[in-house]
Amino acid sequence: MSCRTIDSLPNEILDALLAPLPARTLATAALVSRRFHEAASACLRVRLLQTAALGTRELVLECHAPSERRAPSTSCRSSGMGPLVGDARLGGWYSRFGFEEAPEREVLLDEDELFAQLCVGVSVVQRGPPARGLFMSYTGVGDGVLRVWRTWLSDAAAGRGDVLWADPWKSVGLRFAVEPMVLQEPVGALPRRRPVSDEPAVKYRLRLEELLVRTTQVLLALDKATAQDGAQTALRKLRLPDLDRCLWIDQLCIDQHDPKEKAIQVRLMRTIYSKCTRCIVWLGEIPHPLSHEDADAAIDIIRYMAAVYEAGTEEGVHYPPTLLAKPRFNEAVQFLRFFTRQDNAWWTRVWTLQEVALPPSVDLLWGSICVSWDVILQAKDLAVTKGLPAAFPPVDDMLPLHYFVTNVAWVDGARQRLDGPFDTVHKWRWRGATDKRDKIYGLLGLIDPGILPITEACDYEVPASEVFAVATLELIVAEQSLRPMVACSRVEAENATPDIPRWALDLGNLPMYNTNWGPVHCFPVYNACGGAKVSIDEMKSLAARRSRILEIGGWYVDTIDLVGDKILIDEHKHGHENPVIREKVRQWKTVAESSSAFQESYFKAAEGKPSKLDETFARVLLGDWVRDHDQTALREATLPDVEDALRFCNTGELSMDMRNTILRLAANQVFFVTMKGYMGMGPLDSQPGDEVWVLEGGNYPFILKPKPEPTEKDFVGSGYVQGVMKGELFAHDDQSELKQRLCIY
């Protein structure tokens, strides 16, 4: 069977995938492979050609002396685009702009003065009503300071002048026509008492002929301006014809380019949202091809559910006439996807969580349709407590409605503060943010002040890797255990936050192959460390020093000898595929049976009972606990559960308890056997030679990779090891003398 690669993907599909990406993301995608580079470059080239027109926006130039900051700006008109000096690379293309009326200015250099200075700024703007003379939007393209040298003025007046660049990267340049002027002595000037200077005073007239702007800079500015259109549209929807409104809008009130000012504003977000009168959440315009009536029909479903919940019965509650026909109801359910996480980006951004969780009153504005969050909650509560109304006709695809209920329930949990600091961070880490650091800063409003004292500074001058490392240490202090270190599989190297320590919780991205909530939910039922506590003072000290090295006490268990095949399950694409896992589990059992660590007695079974090897292997698959669909531990595994697990290995039969336990526990793990015969499961990158350690405050053991120095280790991840999970390591011998001080990277 031939192997399909990215090269076999049709151009139309690849172009369709890349087309929606912003320019900056598209440039990053070009680095993936040669095929991506070709497709992304072609897409960027088309955008660059379209950029020259600017659409409804225009380019304005500010060019003035440092003392003339209030000088008016000049409107520019496009006169073409192309590379300079034969540079055919996309980054070498420049957009050229002329002027309706060429601006002029005079430059005077006194004796021995070598240069004059001009402040230059270029922006993309969208003008408002002519009567008011205001800009509707303003996005900077580039700025800098020109030094107009005496020698350049002389050369330019003789026709030998070149472009003057406003910045070292040559993103913005100006071409002038230079004309010398007669410098007249001022009336009543005193007689000269010093020798004539070699550099006499001179005066020139500069007429601006052409503005050159690197086209990629214009493209990025247009991308940013387009992103701001949502705020403009929201403002138009919110303004009242007869009353003034006092609004706070983060996109307008926070200077994203000033990290210190931004940090101050972000620290105030909890107070701003908590003390506002009302928060109006902008979900965006109603998308094409939905009409206002289509969107209103979708919201009618929510309104009716809320009315039924409030009345306590369906009797007497007016049913929306627009939903009486089954086909129309079916359409309305599908339209809900544009209101919920399925197709509405608001539900995927980390900052939007505080918009609902903190204010005393919340309204959601979708186009011109306004619906109260209280109505949203009532609709959710009806579905959770009583189910969907009987008046609703049966529909083949109720997924949009289920998405609505589930996501509202999660957000309502945040509003009620049902989760502690770590669970809050872990639950919402899948939400996105333009700046990775906001994946933690954007959640601080949901965490009581003082719990993450260093992280609460919201320092935007510290790299994301350091922010996440400090946050992990502070979460360990808050949990008083290593629970934050078992939260998730480590993000693959190619997607990981640059320079992040391997032990830190990487909030920047999600792993492709995730262990999800299992280790987090089951952390309390295990006790591998035998009750040994993590030193809170040491963790606080590491956080204060912003340490990249985790210094902690631990006990060596054993070294991994054999490793089974990886079970790779992307549950978002495939779910937990039963046949895939069963075949891999069979291979794991073969690995266990091949280990030289097991004596012959391990293979012998008493009548009606599994052998010791079989029972140990089955308990590894179960984690010695039976779990529910959320991976919460229900009860300890019994002998019948062991037999069920072995039956799955042999025949593939699977009860619901085993499905919830084995399929989720084994997904995205590898099986291993140690030198002494311990069996376990661990991270996908566990290898022979890696070591199993129990660390202070760790209810799970950890897989560590040895380094040349005996006390230095590379972090691999947490694991399950049968025979260690209940503190058996500490059952007989005094382990205090065997404890070692480790430095984990």
UniProtKB/TrEMBL annotation:
Residues 3-52 form the F-box domain. It comes from the Eukaryota. Transmembrane segments: none annotated. This is F-box domain-containing protein.
